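Chapter summary example: a protein plus coenzyme A.
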Amino acid sequence: MSETFTLTSNRVSLQPFTEHHLDARIHYQALPEVARYLYRSPLTPEATRESALANRERRFESPGDRLLFAVVRNVDNILLGEVVATLENPHACQIEIGWIFDPGSAGRGYATEAAKTLLTYLFTAENAHRVFARLDAENDASRRLCERLGMREEAHLIENDRDGDRWGSEYVYAILAREFEPAQAQKECIADSSSGSSMPYPPLKMSVQVHPLPRILSHRPLPSGMRPTAIHQK
Ligand SMILES: CC(C)(COP(=O)(O)OP(=O)(O)OC[C@H]1O[C@@H](n2cnc3c(N)ncnc32)[C@H](O)[C@@H]1OP(=O)(O)O)[C@@H](O)C(=O)NCCC(=O)NCCS
């Protein structure tokens, strides 16, 4: 089954890439600082175009299937970056997520909001049990993003990869379905506290809207005792 759809939250929308987004994607995917921790070279314009347009339809059934979303700002439709989910193990409902944003849009919480929107979708509509991220141990911005999402450090792999001449070490961060909502509620509680000093920005009022509604994945067997839930609609 394949389909395309959009996830919308306060400030951003996650949607399939179109021709309209390509110039902006080609710009940030070509930057050395963006590719620095990705264990590959910056992308050529051809590779950027091909990979954007190859993953537009939802096929999330077999190991390795990817959902790639362009992240656009709602107010002006500007492309901010992208988030991706890869189905690692359908039987155990294990999904890997990742993110790449234009440095020009950094530092305003857009990546956090987009990743949180994606997590909300994966835990509700895709029945994820565990969502994880792998990141270079030197990628401090990505590590802080995982922690803002309420993900736990699960592993610190030492020199498990090579990045050119450099031995690369990685962190694995993860969050379980049963941990996701409490983690978000706790953050909002901290941010709502009267001192206002715990977080320098207001809490996200998340309401993910999906257009069109996804089909709850019935083809993936649920672990016993689990029931699929419909995604919350505002
Ligand atoms: C990883 C990456 C997406 C993080 O981007 P980012 O701009 O730090 O993340 P956000 O957009 O969520 O912004 C968060 C920052 O904005 C601040 N911020 C401001 N307003 C905010 C708000 N409303 N909500 C949340 N954070 C807010 C946060 O305090 C945070 O700053 P800090 O990291 O200095 O503490 C980005 O660095 C990137 O694309 N890197 C290159 C690609 C890459 O390495 N990808 C990861 C591979 S594993």
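Key point: The pocket of coenzyme A is lined by residues 34, 37-38, 81, 98-101, 106-112, 135, 139, 141-142, 144-145, 201 (CB under 6 Å).
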